[in-house]
What we know:
By secondary structure, the protein is of the alpha+beta class. The chain has two domains: 2-79; 92-135, no CATH class. Helices cover 59% and strands 15% of the residues. The protein has helices at residues 2-9, 17-35, 40-62, 66-79, 81-96, and strands at 100-104, 111-115, 120-124, 131-135. The strands form two sheets. The chain has a two-stranded antiparallel sheet with strand order 1-2. A two-stranded antiparallel sheet has the order 3-4. Helix 2 packs antiparallel against helix 3 (40-62).
Amino acid sequence: MRDKIQKFMQGRYGTDQLNRCLLVVSLVLVVLAMLFAPYGRITSLLDMLGVLGLAIFYFRMFSRNISQRADENRRFLEKTAGIRRRFEKEKYMMQQRKTYHIYTCPGCRQKIRAPRGKGRIEICCPKCQTRFIKNS
């Protein structure tokens, strides 16, 4: 069975970041449609948009026009680069918070990282040279 699926998908585009985004948005719309079931018009609109998103997802996945689908994905990545960068930055900050305290300089609002568990420490801002004392 696996060989048959591989043969069928040979020469087809498959999935990429745009397809994953379409799938997630479509599923969220369908779930929202189920939650808002008592409100007739809202439900049908959300349901239609969710099904349309799923149809586009499958169309792109099974498409044989690989260059056009890759170009669509490239444009999607260009337009969402700022948002994705912001989420990556927040994810990195959350990882840093496990081993470091993140302080904000009272003088210039610069974020400063200090190791956890060092007791009361004096922090010198590398940007404006302001000194302040904090507990780590």
